[in-house]
C-alpha cells in the first residue's frame, strides 16, 4: 500500500521555483530544496525522484504560472513586453532564461526541456506575426530581445533601459507600443 503525500505538490513546486529562480540550478542543493519545500528528503525523492526531475517540474510550473497565456496576435506581443519590462524591477530575470544561461551545467533532458521552451517562445511570436513579411526573422529578433531583457534585468539594468530596448524591438518589427 502506498503512502499518501502529506504535502501539496504545487506548493512544494512553487517553493522550488522560487529557490531555483533566486539561486540558479547549480547553486541549489537537494537539502535546500527540502528546507524550502518544508519536506524531508525521503518525501522529496518519493515525489520528485531527483533534483533534475524536480527542476524540470518546477520549470513547467513556472511556465504555467508566470508566463502570460495570451491569444496569438500583435497585441499579445505588446502585452508580453509590457509584462516582462514591469517584472524587471524584481531583478530576478526569468527562470527559463536563467536556466538557458546555465545550460552547460544541466543534464541532457533538462537542457532539452529548456531549449524546447525557448523554441516555443519563438514559435509563439511567429504565430503572432503569421502572414507578415519577415515574420520568422522578426520572431527571432523578439525572442532574442526577451532573452536579452531578462539577462540585463538580472544583471541590474535599469527598468528605463529595458523599456527602451523593448520599445526599439517592437518598433523594428512594426509593433511600436508607447506603453513599454
Topology:
Blueprint: H1 9-23, H2 30-37, H3 41-48, H4 51-66, H5 74-87, H6 95-101, H7 108-128, H8 135-154, H9 159-172
Helix pairs in contact: 1-2, 1-4, 4-7, 5-9, 6-7, 7-8, 8-9
Written description of the protein model:
It is a single chain. The relative contact order is 0.12. By secondary structure, this protein is mainly α. It folds into 2 domains: 9-61, Homeodomain-like (Arc Repressor Mutant, subunit A, Orthogonal Bundle); 69-172, no CATH class. It is built from 9 helices and no strands. The N and C termini lie far apart (55 Å). The radius of gyration is 18 Å and the shape is elongated. α5 packs antiparallel against α9. The model has no long low-confidence stretch (mean pLDDT 92). It is 68% helix and 0% strand.
Mean pLDDT: 92
- Specify the oligomeric state: single chain
Assign a percent range to the helix content. 55-70%
Order of helices and strands: HHHHHHHHH
| Biggest beta-sheet profile | none
Q: What is the end-to-end distance? A: 55 Å
Taken together, the total number of domains comes to: 2
pLDDT < 50 stretches: none
Q: Please indicate the percent range of residues in DSSP E strands (runs of 2 or more).
A: under 5%
Structure class: mainly alpha
Whole-number radius of gyration?
18 Å
Silhouette: elongated
Q: DSSP helix count? A: 9
Can you count the beta strands?
0
